[in-house]
Specification:
With 685 residues, this protein is an alpha+beta fold. Helix 3 runs antiparallel to helix 8, helix 8 packs across helix 10 and helix 10 runs antiparallel to helix 12. The longest helix is centred in the middle third of the chain and has 23 residues. It starts with 6 loop residues before the first helix and ends in a 20-residue tail after the last strand. The relative contact order is 0.08.
């Protein structure tokens, strides 16, 4: 039985434990690369805000033997400080390393800044690494990592995860680096003014901590344009942003909807009123759109004009697949380049995920809930658009496209277990086993949890209305939608599509017309949105509205994405009085209709199942017809026989696909089967 301890209890317990050391654990296992760090005078790292001098050497293992640089050849100078929030309170500390000069470590990016994660709350040590890699596969900015062993001031310190830091840099977040611009500007001034090295360094520091010159054009007595070309300055970008409840950075603000925003870079953005005001107003305007009833703000802008929807969707999937309790609450990074919307990522700080909630309520560890007991009221911007059907359909379509990728990472848990086992067990002998952790058990539990979560999410996101966080769109039965195509081709006239409805398929030929009926008196107007963007507004005269669907720019078959037509009814005051939507699939190719025949009536009862695109799959039904004294056991197309529940792939060809029922007498006698040929013209109107 696994016991969930409070964070304070864990820290108190571990702070009472001695620093374990024995002949078996006072040295590395050498199954991973080894990093040796010695601080100046052997002093401990006690602060997160101040670097201390140190030296570092790296000893590769067999898997990284090809990696060489100055740190593999000899000890070289570095600086080191503490980092983290909850993990900083643990005996096993995480660290931030600043190299003497830029270096690529183990083939990762070229940088001075690196992180050593202790993973003190994760008995598998895998949650951060796997979630970072998975999110990178989705297309989010990926934080590269490698597992190492650490020897600190001559003592074995266990297994650590060496990672890239989250910062603006060409090999990491490649956007305008205003701090680097400040450095280059100061150097240009110093060169022209023949400043000493000491004075140059002071000027660099002062121009990095006072950014008013970027928009003001002057610093002290220096006119910036006299020293450097500023014609390409674009202050609409160059912002690394973190949403975090710790709210502990220099430049920060709380939005109009009480969301804590911190500017990680440039750190001293608050010294430039214009730039700070720009990004604050930008995010507030984005929120106004997110929280409005039609997702447009007062400036007539949709929320997707402020944020990159693809990264917003992928960020949700990466966090929800692992069920991070801190989704859009802590360590939520995003960045904005000049002239572009906000992009979400990279994923960070995922040790409190996938059932590993050491200080939260038990419900946060369950795989089969969207809610987290600690974060159900947190998800901020996601919570605002859970009733946007376009966003929900984007989540569903993206999940279907990437869920198999998650399977690969789940299967990698066993090989990772084997790779890390010796080092983790040596680590546990040094630090003790938090909460009675057993590495074999922790990895097995983690894998089972992830398998269950993946399957549960698959079930939920394949529902028409997944009711995420129980805040999904509430569809009105008083609005009914149907689609038809012109006589020059496309789909035939569809019957009225009641809510909930199935996907509607259209091959792109002919004018597409949507008919809407409203049945309630408080529905005076109907606003139509296609994929979230407003297409038109119509008076519901006589309760009927008919309009042409603008198919320009909508998702086509090769995108793997569906289109959403949303109808929003409003009363005479403009208040929303109902919503309904349907999903439209542009097939880009041939459609075939499936028809079922009962096989026993003289006239043979026929039922149209649906239209499917060539290549689509479906399962044969078990309850299309009822016949007294018989059980429906399967179907035949006069060539092949299929059992109920069998999966069928729609083949290429023309005409309808007709399947006739096969019946088994309940007394065990012979089947009563009446075979019909393929009737390709049946029910074609």
């Amino acid at each position: 039985m696994r016991v969930l301890l409070s964070l304070s209890a864990i820290i108190l317990l571990l702070c009472m434990l001695p620093f374990y050391s024995s002949a078996a654990s006072d040295r590395p296992t050498y199954t991973l690369p080894v990093i040796y760090i010695n601080t100046e005078g052997g002093q401990p790292v006690e602060r997160r805000s101040i670097y201390i001098n140190a030296e570092m050497k790296i000893e590769p293992d067999d898997n990284t033997a090809d990696f060489t640089n100055l740190y593999t050849e000899a000890y070289n100078p570095i600086e080191i400080r503490g980092r983290g929030n909850s993990t900083w309170g643990m005996p096993k500390k995480p660290y931030h390393i600043r190299l003497g000069r830029k270096s690529t470590l183990f083939g990762m990016s070229d940088s001075r800044h690196w992180i050593l994660l202790a993973n003190a709350f994760d008995g598998t040590h895998l949650r951060n690494a796997l979630s970072y890699d998975f999110s990178g596969e989705l297309g989010l900015l990926k934080i590269k990592t490698i597992f190492v062993e650490l020897v600190f001031n001559g003592s074995y310190a266990g297994i650590y995860q060496l990672t890239e830091s989250i910062k603006i840099a060409p090999d990491r977040i490649d956007i305008t680096d205003w701090e680097k611009v400040a450095e280059k500007t100061a150097e240009a001034i110093a060169k022209k003014e023949n400043m000493s090295q000491e004075r140059t360094e002071k000027l660099i520091l002062s121009m990095r901590t006072d950014l008013s010159w970027i928009t003001g054009g002057v610093y002290e007595n220096y006119r910036i344009s006299d020293y450097i070309d500023i014609s390409d300055y674009d202050t609409t970008g160059g912002y690394l942003i973190e949403l975090d409840e710790y709210y502990d950075e220099v430049s920060k603000f709380v939005t109009d909807y009480d969301v804590p925003i911190m500017i990680k870079s440039p750190e001293f953005l608050n010294t430039n009123k214009e730039m700070f005001g720009y990004i604050r107003d930008y995010i507030n305007d984005m929120e106004d759109a997110l929280f409005s009833d039609d997702f447009y703000n007062n400036y007539g802008k949709h929320y997707t004009e402020y944020l990159d929807l693809d990264s917003f969707v992928d960020y949700w999937i990466a966090n929800q697949a692992f069920k991070s309790v801190e989704l859009l609450f802590k360590s939520a990074f995003m960045y904005k380049d000049a002239g572009k919307p906000i992009v979400f990522g990279p994923v960070w700080d995922m040790d409190w995920s996938s059932g590993n909630h050491v200080n939260l309520f038990a419900s946060s560890a369950t795989y089969d809930e969207w809610h987290h007991s600690e974060s159900q009221d947190r998800e901020y911007w996601y919570r605002a658009i859970y009733d946007d059907p376009h966003f929900i359909v984007c989540l569903q379509d993206r999940w279907r496209a990437v869920c198999d990728i998650l399977d690969e990472y789940i299967e990698s848990i066993d090989p990772w277990h084997d790779r890390l086992k010796d080092a983790v067990e040596a680590n546990n002998r040094v630090w003790g086993e938090l909460g009675g952790w057993d590495f074999d058990l922790e990895c097995a539990v983690f894998k089972t949890w992830m398998e269950n979560r993946r399957n549960w999410m698959d079930e939920q996101l394949n529902l028409r209305d997944p009711d995420i966080m129980k805040m999904g769109i509430r569809q009105s039965a008083d609005i009914k939608l149907s689609l038809a195509a012109g006589s020059d081709g496309g789909i035939e006239k569809k019957p009225v599509v009641t809510i909930p409805n199935t996907d509607v398929y259209y091959n792109g030929i002919g004018t597409l017309i949507c008919d809407a009926s409203v049945l309630a008196d408080n529905m005076q107007t109907l606003d139509i949105y296609i994929n979230g963007l407003k297409s038109g507004s119509y008076k519901t005269t006589g309760g009927e509205v008919s309009f042409e669907v603008n198919t320009a720019g909508i998702h086509t078959a090769d995108s793997g994405r569906r289109n959403v037509i949303l109808a929003v009814a409003r009363d005479f005051t403009g208040k929303v009085s109902g919503k309904a939507y349907l999903t439209l699939c542009i097939t880009g190719g041939q459609m075939r209709r499936v028809v079922y025949a009962s096989g026993y009536d003289s006239g043979d009862t026929l039922t149209v199942e649906s239209e499917y695109a060539v290549g689509d799959t479906y399962s044969f039904p078990a309850d299309s017809f009822i016949r007294g004294g018989y059980t429906l056991i399967g179907w035949t197309d006069n060539r092949n026989t299929y059992l109920t529940g069998d999966i069928y792939t729609v083949p290429e060809g023309s005409g309808d696909l007709l399947f006739t029922a096969l019946w088994q007498a309940n007394d065990g006698g012979a089947s009563g089967i009446l075979i019909f040929g393929i009737i390709s013209a049946v029910l074609v109107t």
